[in-house]
Fold this sequence. Notes:
Elements: H1 6-17, E1 23-34, E2 44-60, E3 65-70, E4 78-81, H2 95-106, E5 114-120, H3 130-146, H4 152-167, H5 174-181, E6 186-191, E7 196-201, E8 209-215, H6 225-241, H7 254-258, H8 263-289, H9 295-309, H10 314-325, E9 330-334, E10 341-347, H11 351-365, E11 371-375, E12 382-383
Parallel strand pairs: 3-5
Antiparallel strand pairs: 1-2, 1-12, 2-5, 2-6, 3-4, 6-7, 8-10, 8-11, 9-10
Helix pairs in contact: 2-3, 2-4, 3-4, 3-5, 4-5, 6-8, 8-9, 10-11
The structure holds 2-deoxy-2-fluoro-alpha-D-galactopyranose (GAF).
Amino acid sequence: MTATSTAHLAEQFSTAFGRDPDGIWQAPGRVNLIGEHTDYNEGFVLPFAIDRTARIAVGVRSDSTVRLLSTYGDQGMTTADTAHLEAQSAKGWTKYPLGVMWSLQQRGIDIPGLDLLLQSSVPLGAGLSSSHAIECAVISALNDITGAGLSPEDMVLATQRAENDFVGAPTGIMDQSASLRGSAGHAVFLDCRDQSVELVPFEAETAGLVMLVIDTKVSHSHADGGYASRRASCELGAEVLGVKALRDVAPGDLEEASGLLDEVTFRRVRHIVTENDRVLQTVEQLRRHGPSAIGPLLYASHVSMRDDFEISCEELDLAVETSRANGAIGARMTGGGFGGAAIALTPAAEEQRVRTAVEQAFARAGFTAPDIFTVTPAAGAMRLA
Ligand code: GAF
């Protein structure tokens, strides 16, 4: 799934819809460097937009019909009507554009009929936020087309509403913030309480490193129960501890919290509290010493997700341990968990050794062969044509 050129996408649009597109927009997927499940606890996250994007060519129609087509697979055309956007009838990837249109309508924005062709190089179901890449491309297009003048913060909340209330996934604001607000060569340090962002330089190559993504091919969905049950545990923990959100619990409060919470809820809470702290430490290390200094924090985050939050799986654990044993300076699962991808920050000189070792370990364990590739921090959503 490589990125098609803008001209080629426009040509494909013309062939499919018999007219030229009015514009082409793109939005990237994301890798989360650190800060997992902290977003809906009003905490800190440190993702970056990646050089894999969803691109859409869009033509505005004079009626209320929506026609959606993807270059991926042979899924055929989906037709909808902006006057009756319904979650129940939306299928597959079309939930994301239709959810964004619905969410903007809830804000009182008039949405015209559209012809839309999607092409994406973000792997599906790999935990790199292919869904938010689509949503962010669509909301950027609609913001331009309707002249709604939404700020990035508004667009973040509108896509979250699309995910929560149309798609049915109780997700936070990290992924769309990275996709909309990312910047080449930087990680996005986001305070999820007030949406303030600081861009933190993250240039692995200048430190002689590469960021490997190991897509385990274990497919996951945030609309499944695991994500929602972790979120419910966090909400319970905050309620019992008498705080607005777990963001308000400091590492020094954990000892007292252990006496107030049941064992499982305590471990969920401990992950969030220590993970917020690790994000702050990672930002400080990056600023002071650069990417070479953050390896131990990445691994500590993985251990916390594996043992306390319990969102890893055998394939992710094998990818992380094998990478570390073969030269990676830090590795962790990334994203919501229960499958998807791990990241391994690796000296360029050890890249091939890590790749081969992980492939061999997966083959020995009888797991599906992983897809391993490098990513670099890239620009956020934009109009291309
Ligand atoms: C998914 C969600 F969409 C994010 O909001 C975030 O909670 C993440 O899982 C876990 O950190 O990507």
